[in-house]
Amino acid sequence: MTAITSLSFSAVNQSSSERNTFVSSLASRNLSFEGFRIRSVFSCHYGGVKASNSTSRTAIHCMSTSTEVPPTVSETKSNFLKAYKRPIPSIYNTVLQELIVQQHLMRYKKTYLYDPVFGLGLVTVYDQLMEGYPSDEDREAIFQAYIKALKEDPEQYRIDAKKLEEWARAQTHSSLVDFSSKEGEIEGILKGIAERAASGNFSYSRFFAVGLFRLLELSNASEPTVLEKLCSALNINKRSVDRDLDVYRGLLSKLVQAKELLKEYVDREKKKQEERAESQKANEIVAKCLGDPQVVGQ
């Protein structure tokens, strides 16, 4: 049994069914909002959906038809640390740990099914967040450990992301939206997503939203109207995409600011070290001159 989250709705006057619907959506997306307290009380049994009511708290028990018990968040984190044992600077590690938690909850949802657009979104988020990491080799090693900790294939993520990026660069805003009338590998992937979304079997996530935006960006079709048409063609709620893209942009903005502060700190420390080294060198020269009779007599 895996502990996930719990919410208290003491200040919200809603019917029981409305509360259950809202909590289900909130828990599945791993989001938090002002006015709600989040506590670790929800549990998942993976095998159907069951909700129990009380006057002050709504509990959700999620179950799946699979008999395999999914790992806990702690186990996934432990797998990551075992796979990558080198220290990670805190500015990167904090974000990585949060991403691992979010993706773990997505990964082990009953409705989860990997798709290349989701993969592109995850790769885009990771590469953006880890931009400027001291070592390119370590950055890729961390990615490998991250995906393997979730029991997925990091090579598949990279390959799918590359395919989608190459495809998007060859598209226009009209051809991108009109994928349903065309044949091809990527077009087939998008058609499959649209079909699953229409039937209610699609598991939407923030990474998927970022993947969509990346497709638009690479095809030079990032206008809001194009995004609206693409969401409609995919049977995806555009409001959800807009919201999650705003969250993503905000995260990137904060990370850029943090990296700038870190760079300033590193530059200051480097300058101080250089000044200390020069001062020490000068002192050594003076001491040598004072202690060397030949130098003094010259």
TrEMBL record:
Signal peptide span: none
GO cellular component: chloroplast thylakoid
UniProt KW Oxidoreductase keyword: no
This protein's UniProt keywords: Coiled coil
Pfam family for this entry, one: ThylakoidFormat
Domain of life: Eukaryota
Coiled-coil region: 255-282
HAMAP family the UniProt entry points to: Thf1
Protein name: Uncharacterized protein
